[in-house]
Design a protein that fits this description.
Shape: rod-shaped
Helix content: 55-70%
CATH class of the domain at 134-251: Alpha Beta
Radius of gyration: 68 Å
CATH topology of the domain at 134-251: Rossmann fold
Number of helices: 8
Strand content: 5-15%
Oligomer: single chain
Structural class: alpha+beta
């Protein structure tokens, strides 16, 4: 029994050694596992920290991305507003304006200073009329039209001035020719009516005959030369008749009507007047309204108006030349 017990003890001791070896191995494995677990725990903690940091960064980047998106939206809206304003002010697409853009090789400080100067100048100008471009275009058209009209008026004015000069020259020449003829006829008729004496027609301003007054100087025989307002009424009448016949001789007419021209004349001057009519009646028929018997005696025909009954006028005509032949 002892041997069996010793054998069984040996077996147990052997099994105990194996179990101790296994226990040692298990303890070693446990230590390694614990070490690995600690390392894993540390790794997990580090991973969790990294994850937390990553999540924090992600949240921060999400907020930043949202802020950037908002800024981009605002920038896009601001750009559209700027583009619309530029295109509205310049009436051209932005692409066309950019094609003609000239870049300035200047630093930012210089550009900002120039921008500030321009802004100050614009503020000094005052509020800007948004319709100024259209109004300028309309006013430019009107200016071109008015300029064209002005040029036409200036040209017409020059033509009129030239025509006036030509007309003035022709009128001046014709007037001087007529005036000289009337002046010569006036002297001849005057000496015929007055039986002598002196007379003259003068221009008050010989440099401008068309606008000048005409002065009449007359001196019947035995009197000194003087203006006609100093003469007697009969003399003034004869001077006027002389002037009328002087004009008539310059351009004779077939008929001449005189209304009581002989009224202020005395008998002697009436005789001179009738002799003048006798001289010119060859080419002109004179119709003379008169109450003077001597003038009637020198007429070839007399027509009188009588009123034998109240309100009834009767015309009576007598040809004196035929009556004289009948009496003869």
């Amino acid at each position: 029994d002892t041997a069996a017990l010793e054998a069984q003890q040996s077996t147990w001791n052997a099994g105990r050694g194996e179990l101790q070896a296994k226990l040692a191995a298990l303890e070693t494995a446990t230590v390694a596992a614990e070490s690995a677990l600690a390392a894993a725990d540390r790794t997990l903690a580090n991973a969790e920290r990294s994850l937390a940091e990553a999540r924090q960064q992600l949240d921060t980047m999400g907020d930043e991305n949202h802020r950037v998106q908002i800024q981009l939206t605002e920038a896009a809206a601001s750009r559209r507003s700027i583009v619309e304003r530029v295109e509205a002010e310049w009436h051209r697409p932005l692409a066309m304006l950019l094609d003609g853009l000239v870049l300035l090789d200047l630093d930012i400080d210089t550009l900002e200073a120039e921008s500030s100067r321009i802004v100050a100048a614009l503020e000094g100008i005052g509020p800007v009329n948004p319709l100024a471009v259209e109004e300028h275009a309309e006013e430019s058209k009107r200016l071109d039209f008015l300029t064209s009209q002005r040029d036409d008026l200036v040209s017409a004015r020059q033509s009129l001035i030239q025509a006036i000069r030509e007309i003035d020259g022709t009128a001046r020449q014709m007037f001087l020719e007529t005036f000289n003829a009337v002046q010569a006829n006036f002297l001849r008729v005057f000496t015929t009516l007055f039986g002598g004496g002196e007379c003259d027609l003068r221009l008050a301003n010989a440099d401008d005959p068309l606008e000048s007054e005409i002065e009449i100087h007359a001196a019947p025989r035995g009197k000194r030369t003087q203006r006609i307002h100093l003469l007697s009424s009969g003399e003034r009448t004869l001077v006027a008749v002389s002037l009328l016949f002087s004009i008539y001789l310059t351009k004779p007419s077939p008929f001449c009507l005189m209304d009581e021209v002989d009224a202020p004349l005395d008998d002697a001057n009436v005789g001179r007047f009738t002799r003048l009519l006798e001289e010119f009646k060859v080419t002109t028929q004179f119709l003379v309204i008169t109450h003077n018997p001597r003038t009637m005696q020198s007429a070839d025909a007399v027509y009188g108006v009588t009123m034998q009954e109240p309100g009834v006028s009767t015309i009576v005509g007598v040809r004196l030349g035929e009556r004289e032949r009948e009496h003869a």
